[in-house]
Structure formats: structure tokens, C-alpha cells
Records
---
Amino acid sequence: MAFVFVGCGTTPDTSTPVYDTGLDADEVRNSEFGKVFPLHYASYLNNNDDTQMTEYGGSVPHDKHDGINPLPQGYKYAQPYLKNLWLGYPFSYEYKRARGHTYALEDIFHIDRIDNYSESAGLPSSCYNCKSNKVPGLLEDYGDEFWSQEFNDFRELHDIEDHAIGCNLCHDAETMELVITSEPLDEALQRLDIDWREASKNEMRSYVCAQCHVEYYFQSGDVGVAAKVTFPWDEGFGPEDMYKYKSEGSEEKGFEGAFADWVHPVSDTPMLKVQHPEFETWIDGPHGAAGVSCADCHMPYIRVDGKKKISSHQWTSPLKTIEQSCRTCHADKDAQYLKDRVVYTQEKTWEQLLIAQEISVKAHEAIRLASEFEGEKRANYDELMEEARELTRKGQWFWDYVSAENSVGFHNPQKALDTLAKSQQFSQKAVDLAKKATNYAIAPDLEGDIKEIVPPIMEHSRKLQQSKEHLESHKWFQYLPLLPEADPIWDLNERIDGN
Ligand code: HEC
Ligand code: HEC
Ligand code: HEC
Ligand code: HEC
């Protein structure tokens, strides 16, 4: 597996300062690191600023499917079909734009994807892997048992601020050297014959982010460690490579046959959900291929305290710091030009993203119509339908690879457009095959504006799914079960009185 960073000459591998912090090796509290490094801690606390948007990015956490309401509820660039495409999967309850690292625990405890109405959160402790400073310690205490343990078991253990993503996940507490604390990344790199302990400083400036800003899945307990976070990189980093990995099962990977995150209830199709593949997108883009690291743009040197220069620890859109983030290398271009180039790429990506999203919706609807069709079917109906489902799964995976990635194409403009073109082709073919399976009898039902054929689902949540009336408000809801009436029993990391 070739995986080489080529130096571009603009990022000299200067030696990293090594400190003697006086902190315990197992210190995890951000505030304790803050006593030794007050300027870095102050910079880190700037992650609390969730008030600024850029054109396509930014930090105001709105609902990503809502293009109607103004901030902080919705935003002009929204994909209205997210709840349709993830129906039957907790992502359809709530999906918001990311904000700063300091909010990681507050947001996971609050999000409707975690079941706050039941003793069981419905998700394993694996979810803490990318949110909590305590994971390295919990892995020491519990070993591999940690991953599959009930998420709620560790709620009350957390201080929402002091234990959110922080210093100890990227730094050795005693020396502040950059380290990888994520077991899933360590193991994924090992499978590619890479040892991060021998990596250059420049590589580490991206590997520390690859601990979390990547695609992953939870391993099955049948053959591996139950619910362990696993990176599907063995075949490569592209959407086709990871699709191949997940679709050609093997016992080694922890699943037999094709892997599925959930079955879409409308089309009865085993689906895959992509999670923020920033690292995989960046790696063979113009900057990744040239050895420009995540930290080069997202952690620029900034002047603080009137004089000192430190690496910014506010991880946010580099468009807020173009001078420090970009003009260090692109000194011949002015800030406005650079911003315009980013937005140019994002505009083109966004346009194709919306089209890909709509054809994916059409594919589910076509399969729904074809599977309920009672007239005369093609002789090879079953075969055609099987292929249509496979292409629906694939088309949505390719769409989501770009949709879930947070740069709207900038990290790799060519790959983003290529991936969206393929998504559109796969999904359109799924529609065509479903029509063909019914001898085109369903074709008239799929003509016209997709928003009329399948309206976007604007409102949906765990609470709403407890209401019969809500489930009668959209034709796709008929495939969902009514949930028993219940009230939440958790408020963030605390039990609500009486529960
Ligand atoms: C060449 C500079 C550059 C490099 C290198 C880079 N990024 Fe970005 N990143 C950007 C820009 C520009 C955006 C778009 C910001 C916007 O739309 O406001 C972005 C967006 C993001 C976002 C979303 C930010 C938001 O405002 O919502 C995340 C998360 C992110 N990058 C993570 C990473 C990770 C992880 C890496 C390394 C694997 C990386 N980036 C490498 C420039 C870079
Ligand atoms: C997501 C990973 C990550 C987290 C979390 C993180 N850092 Fe860093 N830190 C880095 C990177 C990358 C560098 C740059 C190292 C280099 O280039 O040698 C850095 C550099 C530093 C340095 C060296 C001086 C400098 O400015 O380059 C100090 C000190 C430091 N960080 C303190 C902290 C403190 C304190 C916290 C917690 C409040 C923290 N870091 C959290 C990634 C991280
Ligand atoms: C331990 C996991 C973890 C690590 C390591 C990590 N991130 Fe994040 N990152 C997250 C999570 C989780 C969020 C979303 C937090 C939220 O919305 O509550 C996030 C959000 C972001 C955002 C969006 C912030 C905004 O203002 O919209 C950027 C940009 C980002 N990370 C960049 C980076 C970069 C660059 C690195 C490496 C230096 C890195 N992250 C390392 C987990 C991580
Ligand atoms: C460490 C150096 C470095 C930094 C920092 C950097 N770039 Fe670049 N940039 C490069 C290199 C190297 C290339 C590739 C040049 C080539 O292929 O000839 C490049 C290419 C580009 C391109 C053309 C390729 C494309 O994606 O369309 C754009 C636009 C660009 N950079 C914008 C930015 C912006 C915006 C930032 C800040 C968010 C930034 N760069 C930060 C080094 C850097």
C-alpha cells in the first residue's frame, strides 16, 4: 500500500519543542494543562466561539437539512432530503453542523441520535472515542470490553468541559510531544505497514487529526472485538476502495457478506452511512499530495499576548485566518483571491451535491414503487431489483462521501466532483432498472419535480415518532414503527430527577 507524503519544500521539518511539564503522565484535564500553557489554553477556549459562519462553512450549529429557517435553526446551504435518505437510522432524528472541539461532549449528550428516552442509549461506548479525553484511561481499565459497554455507563463520569477533546489526546502530558492515542488509528496504520512513532513531524501534524476526522465503522463481535471503532482503509482511501472493503465481507474485517449500517425501510435496501472522511479526501488532493498538513491551514502560527507566536489551538475554518493559514505559502496572492478560489470550488461541488442527493431519493422511491407493483413484471424482475438496490446503496454512499466531508470539496476538488458524478450515475441507473423491472409501468409516477413526488421530511425526531399523527404526515413514514410514549431520562450527563 503506497502511502507517501511528498515534501513540498514549503513546510520545513523544524524540531518540535520538548517540554518538561511537571504534569502526571495520565493527566487528562484540559484546565490542568492550561495552568502550564495558559496561552495555548486561551487559544483552545476560543473553540467556544460558535457565532461565525463563512460562505459554506463555519461554526454555528444549525440543522443541516433546513434551508428555510434562519440561523441558528437552519442555513441557506441545506440538503433538504437528509431525513429522507437516513430514514430508519438515528441520523434521521437530528444532524447538525459541527462546531468547536470544546462542545464535543455537550453535543453528543444532547443529540437525538443517542436514545435519551431509555435506559439503553442504543449506542456503545465506542462513541466516546472521538469526544472524550478519558478514552485512553478507560481502555487501560477495561481493555477491549470498553467498546461495547453501554454508552450511559460512562455519562456521569464526564465533566462536560474539562474532559472534552483536549490536550492529552494529541500530546504526551510530560513532554508535549505529538502522540497518537487512538487505538483505531494506530491499528489501521499498522495494517498499512506504517508506524506513527517513526513518522516525521509534518506527518504527525495530520495524523493527530486522522484520529477522528475519518471514516469508520463498529466491528462486529462475531469475529472481532464487539463495537470496536475500525477504519476501512485496507483497500485505499477513495470512495470506491472503502465501498469495496465494506461490500466484500470477510471474517477478518468482522463481518460476513456486505456490511450494512441499517436497512432503509422505504426501499428495503441495506445502506451505508459515511462519517466525515476529511483525512481520506485531503490525502490525494492538491494539498495532501504536496505534503501540506491539516495543521498548516487549521493551526496556523498566531501572535498572542502582544508578542509570542504559538500554533493556534482554535480548530475552525481557515477562511477566518487567511493571512496566517494560506498566505504563508501563497504570498503572491491576496486574501480575497484565495477566498474566492475556495468558494468557487465549493459552489461547483454544492450544485452537484444537491443533484446527487435528489437522484438518491428518486432511487428509493423507484424501488418502493417497483416492489409494490402488482402488474406484469419483467421475467428477470428479481435480478433487476437486486441490482437496483445495490446501485441505490452505492449511489448514496458516493453522495455521502462528499456530503459528510466538511470542506464542501476544497480538500480535493477533483475527487469531490468525480465522486458526485459517479453517485449520480449509480443512482440514476438504479431508477432505470427499477422502472425496467415493471416494464416501465411506474415511469409516469416518477416524472416531474422530485419535491412533488417525494416531499422533503422537514420535521422528525424520536419524540415525534411516538405520535401516530406524525407518522401519517408523510407517505414514507408508513414504513416506520410507532415508538412507545416516553419522556427523556437524561439531561446531558445527569439523570433527570425521578429516573
Ligand atoms: C490547504 C489548507 C487546508 C488543509 C491542508 C486542510 N484543510 Fe480543512 N479546510 C480548509 C478550508 C479552506 C476549508 C473550508 C472552510 C470553509 O468553508 O469555511 C476547510 C474545512 C474543514 C473542516 C470544516 C470546517 C468548517 O468550518 O465547517 C474540517 C473539519 C476540516 N477542514 C478538517 C481538516 C483536516 C482533518 C485536514 C487534514 C486531513 C484538513 N482539514 C486539511 C483548508 C484546509
Ligand atoms: C488535535 C490535536 C491537538 C490537541 C487536542 C492539542 N494540541 Fe497542542 N499542538 C498540536 C499540534 C499539531 C501542534 C504543533 C506541533 C508541531 O508542529 O510541532 C501543537 C503544539 C503545541 C505546543 C507547542 C508550541 C506551539 O505552539 O507549537 C504546545 C505547548 C501545545 N500544543 C499545548 C497544547 C495544550 C495546552 C492543549 C490543550 C488545551 C493542546 N495543545 C491540545 C495538536 C494538538
Ligand atoms: C478526538 C477526536 C478529534 C480530534 C483528534 C480532532 N478532532 Fe476536530 N472535531 C472533532 C469533533 C467531535 C468535532 C465536532 C464537535 C462538535 O460539533 O461538538 C470536531 C470539529 C472540528 C472542526 C469544526 C469546527 C468549526 O468551527 O466548525 C474543525 C475545523 C476540526 N475539528 C479540525 C480538526 C483538526 C485540524 C484536527 C487536528 C489538528 C482535529 N480537528 C482533531 C473531533 C476531533
Ligand atoms: C504549506 C503551504 C501551503 C499552505 C499553508 C496552503 N497552500 Fe494552497 N497550495 C500549496 C501547494 C504546494 C499547492 C499545489 C501547487 C501545485 O500543485 O502546483 C497549493 C494549491 C492551491 C490551490 C490550487 C489547487 C486547488 O485546490 O484548486 C489553491 C486554490 C490553494 N492552494 C488555496 C489555498 C488556501 C485557500 C489555503 C489556506 C486555507 C492554502 N492554499 C494553504 C501550498 C499551500
---
Amino acid sequence: MMKNSIVISVLILCFSILVAEDDVLKKGEQIYTISCAVCHGLSGKGDGIVAGNLIVKPRDFTSGKYKVRSTSSGQIPLDQDLYQTIGFGMGHDNTMPGWSHLRSDEKEALVQYIKTFSDKFTSDEEVNIVPIPPRKPSTPESVNAGRRWYNDIECWKCHGMGGHGDGPSTPTLKDDWGYKIVPPDLSKPWLFVGGSEPEDIYRTLVTGLDGSAMPAIEGLITEDDNWDLVNFLMHEFIDQGKRAPR
Ligand code: HEC
Ligand code: HEC
């Protein structure tokens, strides 16, 4: 008798969890249809009715490729990454608007709903979260060491020596979807898709922006060297422009 009631309680619990998940996805789908489908398309392929008019194309969610991640290149983003991108948007001049006015449960429902467009979220569960060590003080030595990395890793080939996005490789750059892509002027940090705080820059450099031409430098140089490079970018370009809070 006791056993039966335990089995029944477990079944009821499983059923309520399934119903709750279903409710979240329904809520996500509803908001998506009203607010997101116009650009990202009802099927999530990035083919909404206004997509043709946009220079930077809306993400095709079926590809499972995301630019802003705290995970290694090629891996799926964390729920928290998607949640933040939805809230912040991607850069102030960009066509991915921020949805900070949505309630947190609405943004969470959207995260769960957009994940259903790609199998990668069920097959690739293992991810490596890239550690971001504490900031290194920005001394002239650190900035100079960063300047050498900017030259040696050939960041300038795409970004130009002055950081204006006019390096020798720039005219040929394409994203993974075949569209022309131009690096932002590094002294206009409000254009950055992944934020412009030193920790944001560190994360963007180490993880890369998947799907775009911006490579990941994870494993190339040490964590200390990464901070030198960030200190150089902040000093030379980013702090020269007006940083907009993300
Ligand atoms: C006006 C068009 C437009 C609307 C509306 C829109 N987006 Fe986007 N979205 C974009 C564009 C364009 C990009 C690609 C930006 C880029 O790659 O720099 C994008 C990218 C994204 C990304 C990819 C982030 C990454 O790291 O690569 C997510 C997630 C996203 N949008 C979610 C949403 C959600 C959720 C909604 C609805 C609440 C929404 N978008 C509404 C245009 C739009
Ligand atoms: C092969 C070309 C290429 C190389 C090499 C390259 N980048 Fe980029 N970078 C890009 C492109 C393209 C973008 C714009 C990506 C986008 O908006 O999706 C970008 C964006 C950025 C951004 C802005 C990030 C944001 O959130 O929008 C920074 C900062 C940056 N790169 C720094 C660097 C540094 C430092 C290096 C060298 C370690 C480097 N890049 C190497 C092409 C390149």
C-alpha cells in the first residue's frame, strides 16, 4: 500500500515537471512569435520578413552557432549567455535590439524556446566554461606586451594597425553564412556585440565569436598574456571611445 502511494506520488511529480516544462515552452513560443519571428523567422532559420533588409543578418538558430558565449569555440552557449544577450541586445547600432523590458521569467522562457531549434542543445551537453582570472593592473609594461601580441598574433590583419577595421584581410572577410562581415572600429566600443568591460573583452578574445570571422585565442598564449592584450586594447582603443554600459 505504502509502496503504491510512493509510486503514485513519483508519477504525479514527473507529470507536473513535464507540464511545467511544456508551459515554459508555450510561453516562450508565444513571446517569440510576437517579438522575434519578424527577424528570426517562425522556424528560427533567420528568415523573418524583414531579414532581407538588414545588413547584419538575424541568427539562424537551427545552426546552433552563437557568437557570445562563456564556453570554448565550437560549443553551445550557457543558458545564462543567451539570457544576457536577449536582455542586452548586441551592440548599440546593431539590429539585434535589447529586451530588458521583458520579465525574467519571459526571458528564461525565450531561452528554452530558442534552444529547441537546434539538436546541439540535446547532443552537446558537455561544455568547457572559459575561466576569467582577475584583472591584471594596466602598467606601461603590460600595455607594451599586449601591443606585441596584437602584432604577433596578427590581429592587425583584420583590425588594422590603428584598430579602425581596415586591415589588409578585411575586404575578403565573410561569416559562416556567406555574408560579408566587417570588424568594428575598436575605438567605438558601443558597437561591440559582446560588451566592452575588460572582462567582456577577455571573454570575447578567448572564446572568439563563433560564426563570424573573429577567431578564438584560447590556448595560444597564457592567461597573463591574455590580460596584457586586453590592457593594450583598453588603453589604445577602447577607453578612447565612449563605453556604453551593456
Ligand atoms: C529587428 C530584428 C531582430 C529582432 C526583432 C530580434 N532579433 Fe535577435 N538578432 C538579430 C540580429 C541581426 C542578430 C545577429 C547579430 C550579430 O550577429 O551581430 C540577432 C542575434 C540574436 C541572438 C544570437 C546571439 C549570439 O550570441 O550569437 C539571439 C540569442 C537572439 N538574437 C535572440 C532574439 C530574441 C529572443 C528575440 C525576441 C525577443 C530577438 N532576437 C529579436 C535581429 C533581431
Ligand atoms: C580574420 C580576421 C580577424 C582577426 C585575425 C581578428 N579579428 Fe577581431 N574581429 C573580426 C571581426 C569580423 C569582428 C566582428 C565580429 C562580429 O561582429 O560578429 C571582430 C571583432 C572584434 C572585437 C569586438 C568584439 C565585439 O564584442 O563586438 C574585438 C575587441 C576584437 N575583434 C579584437 C581582436 C584581437 C585582439 C585580435 C587578435 C588576437 C583579433 N580581434 C583578431 C575579425 C578578426
